[in-house]
């Protein structure tokens, strides 16, 4: 493990036996040279100032051959503005090893919003993408192994990219702009779903979808297929209707948060 705290800007040639890199530089990005690394499985650039070009330069073939977790964490608005697109995801598509991808901001919203143009690598099992301007999810192929999606605190209203996902267990879409749950039906296959936990708190859920279907009925379908717990707090059109809550309590029991 190599962990830099309060570092100064410099170029560091990492030795071949380094396996994990965490850069904690309070905004002063140390430029790492990964050319010698043979087994690096974790990169976390905290207080990031990385741009797409920086990221592509880091994710060279020798790094992608062993990289399991890649994390970008921006700490303020000026840093978050550095990341204008999610083009770097195209580079990670070349990896058969990557399992975890994190892109988040503690303070200030990440400028990038075009994630719907890019496809997640099939081997990725967990993604955390929060505090951005994305309005939809990334794409997934039919071979996707994704199990855990946390895309909370964004601008998401379009869920159409949930198709092709057959292994998803946890989905956190809290604090977005979701009104219509129709696309969640894509998570049901032959009457079954692998999804067990769903967080939809603090969205703008309507009583019915744009197609006229009840959002409550869609949640019932998900429960019948295997969904165990759901958080719908902060969605007044749903939670202020006593009949809605009564119906959901009957099926979800203690698994309902409202």
Offer a few descriptive terms:
alpha/beta, 258 residues, 11-stranded parallel beta sheet
Beta-strand fraction estimate: 15-25%
| SSE pattern | EEEEEHHEHHEEEEEHEHHE
**What's the mean pLDDT score?**
87
Distance separating the two termini? 42 Å
- Derived structural class: alpha/beta
Helical fraction equals: 10-25%
Largest pleated sheet: 11 strands, parallel
Low-pLDDT ranges: 1-8, 25-29
Number of strand segments? 13
Q: Which value, in Å, is the CA radius of gyration?
A: 20 Å
How many helices? The count is 7
> What global shape is seen?
elongated
Strand order of the largest sheet: 1-3-5-6-7-8-9-10-11-12-13
Describe this structure in words.
The protein is built from 7 helices and 13 strands. It is α/β, with parallel strands linked by helices and 258 residues long. Strands 1-3-5-6-7-8-9-10-11-12-13 form an 11-stranded parallel sheet. Strand 11, helix 5 (215-225) and strand 12 (229-231) form a beta-alpha-beta unit. Helix 5 packs parallel to helix 7 (242-252). The model is unreliable at 1-8 and 25-29 (pLDDT under 50).
């Amino acid at each position: 493990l190599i962990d830099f705290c309060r570092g100064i800007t410099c170029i560091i040639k990492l030795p071949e036996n380094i396996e994990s890199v965490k850069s904690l530089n309070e905004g002063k990005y140390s430029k790492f040279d990964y050319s010698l690394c043979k087994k690096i499985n974790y990169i976390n650039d905290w207080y990031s100032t990385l741009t797409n070009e920086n990221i592509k330069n880091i994710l060279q073939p020798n790094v992608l051959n062993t990289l399991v977790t890649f994390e970008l964490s921006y700490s303020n608005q000026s840093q978050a503005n550095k990341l204008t697109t999610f083009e770097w995801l195209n580079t990670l598509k070349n990896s058969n090893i990557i399992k975890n991808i994190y892109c988040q901001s503690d303070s200030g919203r990440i400028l990038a919003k075009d994630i719907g143009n890019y496809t997640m690598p099939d081997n990725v099992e967990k993604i955390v993408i929060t505090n951005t301007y994305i309005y939809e999810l990334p794409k997934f192929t039919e071979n996707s192994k994704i199990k855990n999606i946390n895309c909370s605190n964004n601008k998401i209203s379009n869920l159409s990219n949930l198709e092709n996902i057959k292994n998803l267990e946890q989905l956190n879409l809290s604090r977005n702009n979701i009104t219509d749950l129709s696309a969640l039906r894509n998570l049901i296959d032959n009457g079954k779903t692998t999804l067990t936990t769903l967080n939809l708190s603090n969205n703008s859920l309507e009583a019915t979808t744009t197609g006229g279907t009840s959002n409550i009925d869609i949640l019932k379908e998900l429960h019948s297929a295997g969904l165990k717990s759901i958080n719908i707090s902060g969605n007044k059109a749903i939670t202020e209707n006593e009949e809605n809550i009564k119906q959901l309590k009957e099926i979800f029991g203690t698994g309902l948060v409202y």
